[in-house]
Amino acid sequence: ATGTINFDVITQPVLYYTSNASANWTMNFRGSNTVSLDSFMAVGETATVTFLATQGATAYYNSAVTIDGTSVTPKWQSGITPNAGNASSIDAYTYAIIKTASATFTVLASQTRYA
């Protein structure tokens, strides 16, 4: 994991990167490479997805979230925004993406360590 990771919600509810993360990354949620998430989801719908990031001795983390390329601020579980990954483990990031209006989303997020 590094840079911007395009997460295609239509085709992959779980995305697993098996190589060690090499830098912090941005998750960009979209419907697919040709369909925006905004046009795919109806108001009131929720999509729940998980990103699994393998970590080496130096750990990194999801530092930003966008939907269709537009920045959103997730609401993190327990109100604690991750500022680090977990070395020599797999970090599971789960996102519940709720469409509340046209091009407007609430994202509930969590980071869980699996060692």
What can you tell me about this protein's structure?
The chain is mostly beta strands. 3% of the residues lie in helices and 51% in strands. It has 1 helix and 9 strands. The chain has one helix spanning 37-40; strands at residues 3-8, 14-17, 25-30, 46-54, 62-67, 70-72, 75-76, 90-101, 104-114. The strands form 2 sheets. It has a 5-stranded mixed β-sheet with strand order 2-4-8-9-7, with no helix packed on it. Strands 1-3-5-6 form a 4-stranded mixed β-sheet, with no helix packed on it. The longest helix is centred in the middle third of the chain and has 4 residues, at 37-40. The two termini are 18 Å apart.
Quick summary:
With 115 residues, the chain is mainly β. It has one helix spanning 37-40; strands at residues 3-8, 14-17, 25-30, 46-54, 62-67, 70-72, 75-76, 90-101, 104-114.
User: Average pLDDT value?
Assistant: 97
What percent strand? over 45%
For the CA atoms, what is the radius of gyration? 14 Å
Low-confidence stretches: none
Biggest sheet details: 5 strands, mixed
Element pattern in H and E? EEEHEEEEEE
Helix content estimate:
under 10%
Q: Characteristics of this structure?
A:
five-stranded mixed beta sheet, 115 residues, 1 helix, four-stranded mixed beta sheet, mainly beta
Secondary-structure topology with pairs:
Blueprint (H helix, E strand, L loop, with lengths): L2 E6 L5 E4 L7 E6 L6 H4 L5 E9 L7 E6 L2 E3 L2 E2 L13 E12 L2 E11 L1
Parallel strand pairs: 1-3, 2-4, 3-5, 7-9
Antiparallel strand pairs: 4-8, 5-6, 8-9
